[in-house]
Fold each of these.
Amino acid sequence: MAPTTAPPPLSGKKRRIGVMTSGGDAPGMNGAVRAVVRMTLHYGCEAFAIYEGYDGLVKGGDMIKQMGWEDVRGFLSEGGTLIGTARCMEFMERAGRLQAAKNMIVKGIDALVICGGDGSLTGADKFRAEWPGLLKELVENGDLTEEKVEPFKYLNIVGLVGSIDNDLSMTDATIGCYSSLARICEAVDSVDTTATSHQRAFVIEVMGRHCGWLALMAGVSTGADFIFIPEIPPPDNWEEDMCKIIKKHRDLGKRKTIVIVAEGAHDRNLKKITPQHVKTLLSEKAKLDTRITTLGHVQRGGTPCAYDRMLATLQGVEAVKAVLEATPETPSPVICMIENKIVRRPLLEAVAQTKEVATAIHAKDFDRAMLLRDAEFKEYWQAYQITTAADQPELMLPPEKRMRIGIIHVGAPAGGMNAATRAAVAYCLARGHTPIALHNGFPGLIRHHSDEPMGAVREISWLDAESWASKGGSEIGTNRGLPSEDLETVSLVFHKYNIQALFVVGGFEAFTAVSELRKGREHYKAFKIPMTILPATISNNVPGTEYSIGSDTCLNALIQYCDACRQSASASRRRVFVIETQGGESGYVATIAGLSIGALAVYTPEDGINLKMLDRDIDHLREVFVKDKGQNRAGKIILVNEKASKTYSVQIIADMIAEAGKGKFESRHGVPGHFQQGTTPSPMDRVRAVRFGVKSLQHLESFAGKSRDEIDDDPMSAVVIGIKGAKVLFSPMERVEKRETDWKLRRPKDEFWMSLKEIVDTLSGRPKLPPKE
Ligand code: ATP
């Protein structure tokens, strides 16, 4: 995932790098500005903010300001853009760009990092293409001398995509899209409760003129009954179709109806599908009491979610590196995210491909429009379809391919467990499988056999699971207990209920449980069935994946807690909060939360805590408070993982800081504890739960009809699904157990996020400890 802070600037020249935000604002843009400014300074270069987008570049003067380290303090948690944005007509004309070029040279800036949508990036690329001509013209006009322009022959442009629509091709996520999705989901969840009370239907319009990402993801996250997106218009008879599906859901007992319409939705003839039209159909044909809610600009606003803060930060870091590594021949890059990996892509191609989507839609070539979107988008669309409509006879498998699939939760609850289960149930029912809930984990099964003859093993109906999309906790009950408590009984229960495949949702215990069942195959035939684990734990410590569902919900809860602590210090200002995070033996949560809130220091179990570190950090705090002239009236945060040290608890660290800071600063400690499990799961956890849930079930299904021995022989019959770098894949348990697992410390041997710690430190200005002798 991680860009590192390692390589130094390549040229000897002290570069001056400008950063701007342009086009529509998006939550997270400030985090990008902070990262660009601080990384620029870290590399010994000079940073400039260009205020009000291209307008500032064209006007010059005070609109282009040199930025110091302290100028971006507190930026990470602010929504919108603090350096302003604008739509600038002058920059669309060559004369405006000529003026912009002159202003840049006058300020000595030869590289620009632009955070904006495809329009802003198009403008940027045009600017770079014209740059030599603009310089020539400036000299010919007598505006600047030959000597003055000589050092500025090459303009470096790097794009960061800041856009709530997530409309740029070649990246899975743009800065702001998950915050916007969070706003939408909050709204839909709120509408949901009133819709259920009154048995109403709601038609909700969300943003997205050429891109249905927000509408699709909102549909997946909330379990909406029907969605309309521009890339895939509904079939010609959609009016009937929609009413039929919704009626079917009502007949099955659903009390509410949610339809999500993207702003740019249309039918196959490009006739706009308006919320009003959908409402009329639902009212008149389906006879539902229907209301329209248009979310509008609410979707743009608010504080950025954890993911956007992290994405913006990592992309900002990578952007500065890209500037410093560029040669005159390097095409301008745009910084993208593929699954969990930051990558550079050619800016021009990404913009061209994005524009092509709109062209394809216009030409009614919807297959091509979809082809031009990322693979992830397509998977989400398929997952939405298969997990939504209750009646899809065309998807049914022949009877011999249908399976009885056990679903079990293991370990502590994590956001998204229910969404994954709902998706699995809906998938099973769509394909003709029987979804069977194994309640309260393995101890539930073991007890069930001895003294609870009814209840712990039950088929789940469509209606049971239908409302679970947005629910936190575990609806089927979860337990940390392992099958090894009584493997014999577990096998008897599997046998008795003819469990032919197992879908396990949970954390390290789930991983351990499947490992035990896999090894138990030697003695128990009942375990010779396909098994898949969907990692779900706030600690994100399951081997075989870089991401567990629930971890994003946890990070959001944690940054909310930290933001509140910080704000509480705005009266006294000189306060340090030492906050304990969960995460077991893995410092992931502490580190990523640290990245997302701009923590001053993060202590992890991987590094431990010693006196030298504390001493260094206390010295650093002294310096920070000396430098802080009141630009940012908020407290500072230090995050400490619960297992980072047996000696130095958050209370002790806070006391040490308070003692050292006497009269200059004070300190408090905080333990958010179970608050970190969050309440409502974050949209990212929900959508990934659905996508991975569906993929897991497809994997289990691929074993239908195979003999137990064939299954036993196939290493892929016990797998963990996960994200590794830019890929989502299944990893065979046997290999992951042996090669990738640190059993003692209950975490993966290689933790992908370790390099991110350096970025947290760099961006907070934390000094490095001298190397050990
Ligand atoms: P959003 O996704 O929110 O619409 P955007 O970056 O696409 O963001 P635009 O309004 O299209 O927003 O572009 C922002 C600014 O970028 C414009 O006001 C203009 O100054 C500049 N710009 C856009 N397109 C071009 C172009 N083709 N040539 C030069 N400048 C452009």
Note: The chain has four domains: 16-174+304-357, 177-299, 403-461+482-536+684-748, 551-679.
Amino acid sequence: MPRAETTTDVASDAVAAIIADVRSRGYNALSELAARFDRVEQHRPLVPRAALKEALQQLDPQVRAALEESIRRARLFADAQRPRNTDLQIGPGANVAQKWIPVRRVGLYVPGGLAVYPSSVIMNVVPAQAAGVSSLALASPPQPAFGGLPHPTILAAAELLGIEEVYAMGGAQAIAAFAYGVPAAGDNPELEPVDVVTGPGNVYVATAKRLVKGVVGIDAEAGPTEIAILADAGADARLVAADLISQAEHDPNAASVLVTDSAELEQRVREELDRQVAATRHRERVATALSGPQSGTILVDNLEQGIEVCNAYGAEHLEIQTANAEEAAARITSAGAVFVGSYSPVSLGDYCSGSNHVLPTAGTAAFSSGLNVTTFMRAIQVINYDRAALAEVSGHVVALSRAEDLPAHGDAVSVRFSS
Ligand code: NAD
């Protein structure tokens, strides 16, 4: 099945040009790109503090309560993830340690093209705060319907979390601005470059993150959403179809994949999809995603083979709806996140499970992880040997330095013991 990776290749040239434009023309480029891609004429990149406060005041109390509960659960889990420092005495007087340090400044991207994602504010901000990052900047596309500011629910979520630096910037241009910074111009203050850029987004955002990687750190490639569902004959076709649709709703490029050993279930899911797609609000987008080459059913001989297929595919979200769901889940070695059994739908993880919804797509789960506290941290190793401890290994250092034909390395040890 083709993956989003092929689409990032297609977007590369366009995105490289946008990044170069932002680097050379700063705020002027940002305003022109906002007009071109977001249809915003009066562009004011830095959102005024008053607009953040106002958005929270105006927020629907039910949405506020939901955001607060989502934050509470995400915080509990993020706090529990903080890695422990290691301090080990290798031998007498020979100490090595590893300490985890948060990065200083991060740029957090919250998508806002086809849908509005206040939940992504939480998913980005909470682990960064739990890591101890001191400087957080957030960007989301400017919306013509809201005077060129990001959607008010996004602003309200930022205010709830105490984020003061919010930019109305979308797509590849936002990622470029975070990575390279933007010099002050006119009324716009300097946007200071960040150390790490995170967050989900469409193919332009994912491609831009790929292109700035190395200049800054990034989280996993979190491009167009994917759901795979491993289901057997006993699965409820109504629930399977609802979950496939729920992720297809994100993006016409979203992938919804059913992996099953039951041709009969496949038939029932197909009938349910016909019925439910016709009734869903974003039916066009959903139908496009479901009929795309990236979506479909993989019929396997048995669940054993189904697990192999799921591990080879490495879906961003993998649901297990089989008789022994926990057993099957324990054997999954590649996925952004695994949702076990009928009462753990992906939508729960999207909003309120405590887990993070910024997850690796396009098969990158084979080597990367979903957003978590360590995304915002680095580990520094600290070496502290005393004279006797160094003397004990000095012969080995000299031998290895000769073997590598780097004798000055050995000399730097020997000199400490010669008078
Ligand atoms: P977005 O904010 O990612 O993209 C909107 C921006 O795209 C615009 O501001 C514009 O600058 C840029 N853009 C649009 N057309 C362009 C073009 N032709 N050339 C260059 N730039 C262009 O919002 P979206 O489009 O709604 O996408 C959100 C994405 O995030 C979806 O694909 C969704 O599946 C994904 N998502 C992923 C996760 C995850 O964890 N993997 C979580 C939430 C959302």
Note: The chain has 15 helices and 13 strands.
